[in-house]
Amino acid sequence: MENIEARVKKIVAEQLGVNEAEVKIDSSFVDDLGADSLDTVELVMALEEEFECEIPDEEAEKITTVKQAVDYVTAHLNK
Amino acid sequence: MSLQGKVALVTGASRGIGAAIADTLAAAGAKVIGTATSESGAAAIGERLAQWGGAGMVLNVGEEGAIDALIDAIAKEHGDVAILVNNAGITRDGLLMRMKDDDWDAIMDTNLKSVFKASKAVLRAMMKARTGRIINIASVVGAMGNAGQTNYAAAKAGIMGFTKSMAREVGSRGITVNCVAPGFIDTDMTRALPEAQRDALVGQIALGRLGDAQDIADAVLFLASDKAAYITGQTLHVNGGMLMP
Fold first, then answer.
1. Which of B75, B90, B115, B203 is most buried, with most CB under 10 Å away?
2. Do A45 and B170 touch (CB under 8 A)?
């Protein structure tokens, strides 16, 4: 779990060009980290590659915070 | 203008404008993949482009999943597409009063939907690369209209609107999206016109002659090059002064 969180935070920091320390578990990509809509699409693409999974568009739309991303990945990696 | 080492995909590269574009980009150093709708057409393109390290592949733009499969195959064999030229197009001319739904749908699928599909398919790699060139071949008809071509003009004008919107979406990632709008170019498509109609058309052209496929290819080469890095969302009209929008 912690491992996944760390990996997600690292990707978020890389994709959005922010310092990793700024990326908190409750951070919202758009409201807190300054992402635009295209950034969020790219972020999902990066998560798909990191965790070797495919996130359907309707699920991807619901991933707007670091916590939601961690929860999604955790739930789907355990399957 | 060197395109050394870049992979370029040109749809509809068998003849006419598409063939000239494919050859021109290849001569500038790009590894060009040209598509045709038949195996024999693809083989002929392959023979033509082989001297520059390019290849011909089959693509029926209307076929479900065909474009995605092609982009994947190109990425595996040659690398990610850095330059996409959406050139493939057909005509189904006729007066609106007599136009069948099929004539409309065929044009929309082949001339417009294919642009959406191919552009979407190459976008992921271009976003990651933070650079890319998409050049859509529109038509003067999309800007000025032409009796007997409501379907074709609608699709070509649609391409221009698509181009502007996509340019706004992906500009922040260093990807440019532009149109080249040919006027009346001496190709099989325009040779099919009746003599009287051709003469009337030439009368409207400031330079007093039909264009050559190479005129279009040179404009595409410019937009594909690093020299055009600050141009996006534009339609470059190459029509001998037939229309000055």
1. B115
2. no
